[in-house]
Amino acid sequence: MANRFTDSRKYRDPWFRKLKSKYKLIWDFMIHECDHAGIWKVDFELASFSIGENYTHDEVANVLKNKIYVTPKGDWFIPKFVEFQYGTLNPENRVHLSVINILKSKGAYKGLTSTIQGCKDYDKVKVKDKDKDIISKFNLIWAKYPNKLGRKGALVYFSTAIKAGKDIEEIEKALNNYLNYIKIRKIEERYIKQGNTWFNNWEDWVNYDNKIKPKSRTDINQTRGVLPSYSPRGLPDSIKDILKKEKKNIDNNNKE
């Protein structure tokens, strides 16, 4: 969409007005760079170059977390864009139908808060704001997770943890520890846990120490297949007698 409406009253919005200048600019950039369905293909390298400010994914996501919906593929959907440009979407309108189809293909349809007009064939959005927020936060974390198998189960465990009052920062800390573990230990890709497995046990990684400790002599011997040697001191007399007899038999065999 080359031409689009712009909100001339946005500076009267307390939320926008309180943003730092660099975040006002990135928000305006996203509004201009997103497609006609409000989907922005995340590109902070281009944004930083165009605006002249340095941006990071997590930084901007944290500032705009209530204004964006992160799709399963990592794109950012701006619900307010659709509401402002089109109002209530009507599937009988070709342009509106195009927007609906794009949102569905991107997995962002549930991120739309405005009602959808139309026949019974078109579902109305029923996702609660709280659930929508949880899914968006999950997608931000899921974008960093290296093994994309088990996403559905991972979302269930993540959602359960958040609803139980767990701190999302703790989950992020646990994931960073696991990512460091993979890097330091040079874990092969095939051995990285599937999403549903890791998110079911994420608390095990909150305080995980990634420092590689030096191996003990016992560890080295076990690695080499060497059995540890034992001193006869402290052994029962019956065991000592058996060992002496075995040693005597070995000596006799060697003499023969």
Largest sheet entry = 3 strands, antiparallel
> What is the string of SSEs from the N terminus onward?
HHEHHEEHHHHHHHH
Shape: elongated
- How much β-strand is present in the residues? under 5%
Strand order of the largest sheet: 1-3-2
Q: What is the strand tally?
A: 3
Uncertain runs with pLDDT below 50, 5 residues or more? 113-127, 219-231
Tally of individual domains: 2
Mean pLDDT: 78
Q: By helix and strand content, what is the structural category?
A: mainly alpha
Could you describe the 3D structure shown?
The chain is an all-alpha fold. It has two domains: 1-130, no CATH class; 144-223, no CATH class. It is built from twelve helices and three strands. The protein has helices at residues 14-17, 21-33, 44-51, 57-63, 79-86, 94-106, 129-142, 151-163, 168-185, 195-200, 217-224, 237-255; strands at residues 39-40, 69-70, 76-77. It has a three-stranded antiparallel sheet with strand order 1-3-2. A hairpin with a 5-residue loop joins strand 2 (69-70) and strand 3 (76-77). Helix 7 (129-142) crosses helix 8 (151-163). The longest helix has 19 residues, at 237-255. The N and C termini lie far apart (97 Å). Mean pLDDT is 78; it is low at 113-127 and 219-231.
Keywords:
256 residues; single chain; elongated; three-stranded antiparallel β-sheet; 2% strand; mainly alpha; 3 strands; 2 domains
